[in-house]
Automatic annotation (TrEMBL):
<keyword id="KW-0804">Transcription</keyword>
<dbReference type="Pfam" id="PF08281">
    <property type="entry name" value="Sigma70_r4_2"/>
</dbReference>
<dbReference type="InterPro" id="IPR013325">
    <property type="entry name" value="RNA_pol_sigma_r2"/>
</dbReference>
<dbReference type="InterPro" id="IPR014284">
    <property type="entry name" value="RNA_pol_sigma-70_dom"/>
</dbReference>
<keyword id="KW-0805">Transcription regulation</keyword>
<dbReference type="InterPro" id="IPR013249">
    <property type="entry name" value="RNA_pol_sigma70_r4_t2"/>
</dbReference>
<keyword id="KW-0731">Sigma factor</keyword>
<feature type="domain" description="RNA polymerase sigma factor 70 region 4 type 2">
    <location>
        <begin position="127"/>
        <end position="174"/>
    </location>
</feature>
<dbReference type="Pfam" id="PF04542">
    <property type="entry name" value="Sigma70_r2"/>
</dbReference>
<feature type="domain" description="RNA polymerase sigma-70 region 2">
    <location>
        <begin position="26"/>
        <end position="92"/>
    </location>
</feature>
<comment type="similarity">
    <text>Belongs to the sigma-70 factor family. ECF subfamily.</text>
</comment>
<dbReference type="InterPro" id="IPR013324">
    <property type="entry name" value="RNA_pol_sigma_r3/r4-like"/>
</dbReference>
<dbReference type="InterPro" id="IPR039425">
    <property type="entry name" value="RNA_pol_sigma-70-like"/>
</dbReference>
<protein>
    <submittedName>
        <fullName>Sigma-70 family RNA polymerase sigma factor</fullName>
    </submittedName>
</protein>
<dbReference type="InterPro" id="IPR007627">
    <property type="entry name" value="RNA_pol_sigma70_r2"/>
</dbReference>
<dbReference type="InterPro" id="IPR036388">
    <property type="entry name" value="WH-like_DNA-bd_sf"/>
</dbReference>
């Protein structure tokens, strides 16, 4: 998935105080972090702020951080936690008695590629509808598994779940998608075509 040795070396250099190494980590991960965050909010400025806050926090606490052989997973999980805190804060500020249900929006980054493929153009809205009809956690597990190419173990780490729960969630998501087998077949064809 990622050039682990390169990222581990960058992580080690950053922990030793090399600001350029942190810059490389930020540049290499910005797109995946941004795309992942768009699944929870469309507020681009909030996403940018959360990513910036994440890297500032890392810099300020670099000496206390453990060595991480899974840099991308660590960054995704940290961003997810930070984003949830800020979204919860915003919701509380908007209404103290509002029940928090964080959205998992349909802004899936490979959609732009789907639009470019003429044979799928007519079904774009049907594919979006199919994905957004899934419960939010199922949408998230589909995104992490098929769009980001993460393993079950990596997804479990990011979503704070055990491996079996992630497998069950993914299985339920696929069963739900199979209820409309033609569109699901097209969706998985495109997802596996990317992999």
């Amino acid at each position: 998935m990622e050039p682990k040795n390169d990222y581990i070396a960058l992580w080690k250099s950053f922990q030793e105080g090399d600001s350029k190494a942190l810059g490389h980590l930020a540049n290499n991960h910005y797109k995946v972090l941004f795309n992942y965050a768009t699944k929870f909010t469309k507020d681009r400025e909030l996403i940018k702020d959360c990513i910036q806050d994440l890297f500032l926090f890392l810099w300020d606490h670099r000496e206390k951080l453990q060595s991480s052989p899974f840099v991308t997973i660590y960054l995704l999980k940290s961003l997810r936690n930070n984003l949830f805190k800020k979204l919860n804060q915003e919701k509380r500020n908007a209404s103290d008695d509002l029940d928090i249900d964080l959205p998992f929006t349909e802004g899936i980054s490979p959609e732009s590629e789907l639009i470019e493929l003429e044979m799928f153009y007519e079904n774009e809205s049907k594919l979006k509808s199919l994905l957004t009809s899934l419960p939010k956690r199922q949408q998230e597990v589909i995104f992490l598994k098929f769009y980001e190419g993460l393993s079950i173990e990596e997804i479990a780490e990011i979503m704070d779940m055990n491996r079996q729960s992630v497998s069950n969630l993914l299985h339920r998501a696929i069963l739900n998608l199979k209820s409309n087998w033609f569109l699901a077949g097209q969706l998985f064809y495109v997802l596996y075509l990317k992999a």
